[in-house]
Amino acid sequence: MDKNLNVLIVDDYKTMLRIIRNLLKQLDFDNVDEASDGAEALAKLRAGNFGLVISDWNMAPMTGLDLLKEVRADTRLNKTPFIMITAESKTENVVAAKQAGVSNYIVKPFNAETLREKIEKVLGNA
Amino acid sequence: MPDGAALGGVSPQMVEAAVREVLGTMNGDLTVKEAALLAELEALGRTVRRAKAEIAALSPQDLGASHIPAASDELDAVVSHTATATNEILDVCEGLERLQAGLTGAAAEALGTAVTRIYEACSFQDVTGQRIAKVVTALKTIEARINAVQTGFSPALPVAAAPPPPPPAGRTEGERLANGPQLPGAGVSQDEIDRLLASFD
């Protein structure tokens, strides 16, 4: 697993961005950038070169699901692994995310082991 | 008690006026049917008067203008204070991680494990913040309903605030499904999510 890849974390709670960034650092992912909503994330993704997106769902002006759809519709970005980390834990949310092409789905509150396991799985090192 | 909308646009004042008008047309001996109608109309009039008195006793203008906004502000302060406290905890954790770099063996591992557990625990602030946001939204809905009832039954009372606008019609799927954290037992667990995702493969 390439831990030098660029990771974009997307959440409208600054504290959660900080927590995920610190947990990623413990997993030796040091190249981490942040965005506070889907629209900002999409702009950063189109301007940069990211190997993994970890996104919340409930954000404005663009939700995580809408960001995921934009990413999957973009020919340059559509293969980027995308993990949803969200408090939305209804079956219909999980199904909608899967149908939109999510790589994995973590429900909040989560633990570091779950994050590690899902990252390894989507990056092909399970 | 029905609100203005449930009355189909007919205000309590109009009902009262209609009752008075009907009563005014009734002269002489009443038939059984007319007497029954009169009794029902009198009961309706009493219900309307009682409802008006009850609403006035509730002081809806205080609820809408003061109590509910104050409750919303208090909840916003809860979110702000917990965010500040959480960030202070994270400051300390990051300091501990710097110390960990100078340790080796079991001590370093124990410290790393403890810090990870604190990070995990701190994620509560996100979930509680979203739950509180849902409560604030519920309070605003109650405020709007109170204003609607107040306008329908007591037009003389000042209206605290306009009701919130309905959700825009062109919402995306992501917005429609963004409902915040479910109550314990109402959502699916991580294990169930894993099984559900695997069922697509």
From TrEMBL, chain A:
Keywords: Phosphoprotein
Organism: Humitalea rosea
Keyword ATP-binding in annotation: no
One Gene Ontology term from the biological process aspect of the record: phosphorelay signal transduction system
Pfam hit, one: Response_reg
CDD domains found in the cross-reference section: REC_CheY_CheY3
Top-level taxon of the source organism: Bacteria
SUPFAM superfamilies: CheY-like
Protein name: Response regulator receiver protein
Residue numbers bearing the 4-aspartylphosphate modification: 56
Residue intervals of the Response regulatory domain: 6-123
From TrEMBL, chain B:
Name of this chain's protein: Chemotaxis protein CheZ
One Pfam family named in its UniProt record: CheZ
Top-rank taxon, per record: Bacteria
Segments for region (Disordered): 157-188
One GO cellular component term: bacterial-type flagellum
Organism expressing this protein natively: Humitalea rosea
Gene Ontology biological-process annotations: regulation of chemotaxis
InterPro entries: Chemotax_Pase_CheZ
GO terms, molecular function: catalytic activity
